[in-house]
Amino acid sequence: MLEIQSLECVRDDRLLFSDLSFTLGESEVVQIEGANGCGKTSLLRIICGLRLAESGAVNWYGESVQANREDYYANMVYIGHLPCIKGDLTVLENVRALLDTRSLSVSNLIIEAALAKVGLESYEDVPGKALSSGQRRRILLAFVDLAKAKLWVLDEPLTALDVQGVELMEAMIVAHKEAGGSVIFTTHHGMKLECEMRSVQLGNFAHAGQGD
Amino acid sequence: MLNAYYHLLIRDLRLALRNRHELANPLIFFVLVVSLFPLAVTPTAEALQAMAPGVIWVSALLAVLLSLDRLFKQDYDDGSLDQLMLSPNPLMILVLAKVTAHWLLTGLPLVIVAPLLGLFMSLPADAISVLVYSLLLGTPVLSLIGAIGVSLTVSVNRGGVLLSLIVLPLYIPILIFGANAVDVAMDGLSVKGQLMFLAAMLALAVSLAPLATAVALRITASR
Predict the structure, then answer these.
(1) A34: closest CA among A16, A21, A57?
(2) Do B88 and A50 touch (CB under 8 A)?
(3) Which of B69, B35, B47 minimizes the C-alpha distance to B147?
(4) A88 neighbourhood in chain B, CB within 8 Å
(5) Which of A93, A208, B85, B194 could lock A89 by a disulfide, CB 3.0 to 4.6 Å apart?
């Protein structure tokens, strides 16, 4: 459903990768691997259509992502390095604000259930500024879970999460794959996924490799 | 689509109401600047009247300019802006929601206190009502044009000077027609032309500025 065609990315006159191609079908998990500064975040932002590639294309069901934002964004959810959490809104309002941008109306009960699942039970009315950074990341997990997206694009989703948080993220990815969804993620932490997954290597002067 | 507009508007208003001290800043700036003028110059009714339109309009314009940073900065810093750009809804609708919230929180309070400051500068009653109309038509344009400037400079640290350089030239027609309307009203002439011009600027800005802001935001994010 997602095709990456010979992408080239240049940042500050430095070639990060070129001629990078891979495809992502339904029910597939891909990890983007590579050292710091090799362009993982840039690649994910290009896949989201936030950043423009120097050359190449990202296609969603055969159509360019830029030309087809409405359909693509309704089916794709991205979480990046930044927490997207407002300190002055409560946990519940934060999740709701994130879901509202996707025009999803979800009942409070469902949001509370999702928050309980990520270990934020009884935190619904706590303002965001009173949370630890790990708890903020957990709000994002609840958001991803509720976003009803086929494709998850996760940039370092394990940042600031504790052991239970990491296990939760792993379980969520496996469950999402089993439900027919796909995931692209980067991480520097060991993620032990109990499902099939591929990895794409970003290295100096980019060679895209595939393997199990 | 309307839902997305409404929800984002409510979110921004709610955030601002929980952060009230920031909310009062432009208003206090406006009142302080206007009320300092009579202290610095001869406070005779004629002298004050003569400069009132200009002083009030320039202060309102600067108050809006100072508050522009708030429009996208916080969302940019915490990553919410990325989420807005990844919304299935048209980005210009979301931009319009944010600008509406900005105007309700800065422009509208200025319009509401303006009659008081008009009295303070001993403006006649007719001129005060024209002052309110001109600000009511002009301040939304200031917010809309400002949004274009902010979206271009939001990624720059301390982009305040740059923002002023981009936005001020575009503000000048509004300033000229707004202040002139009040001036002309004091002479007892018709101000239809000036107000119509401001209304035309508003119509133009509402239809085009959100589009330009949305494109500028995408450019900012793509670097």
Answers:
(1) A16
(2) no
(3) B69
(4) 15, 18-19
(5) A93
| Cα(A208)–Cα(A202) distance, integer angstroms | 6
pLDDT digits (tens, 9 = 90+) for A39-65: 899 999 999 999 988 899 999 999 999
Query: In terms of residues, how long is chain B?
Result: 223
Instruction: With beta carbons under 8 A apart, name residues in chain A contacting B222.
Output: 50-52
pLDDT in tens, B82-107: 999 999 999 999 999 999 999 999 99
pLDDT tens by residue, B169-221:
999 999 999 999 999 999 989 999 999 999 999 999 999 999 999 999 999 98
Best mutation target, B14, B74, B80, to test chain A (most A CBs within 10 A): B80
pLDDT-based confidence at residue B21 (cuts at 50, 70, 90)? confident
- pLDDT on residue A204: 58
Q: Are strands A63-64 and A55-60 parallel, antiparallel or unpaired?
A: antiparallel
DSSP string across B104-173: IIIIHHHHHHHHHHHHHTT--HHHHHHHHHHHHHHHHHHHHHHHHHHHHHTTSTT-HHHHHHHHHHHHHH
pTM value is 0.92
> Looking at the partner chain, which of B7, B78, B86 has a beta carbon nearest the beta carbon of A83?
B78
What is the least distance, in Å, from the CA of A176 to any CA of chain B? 20
CB contacts of A103 in chain B (<8 Å) are: 1, 3-4, 87-89
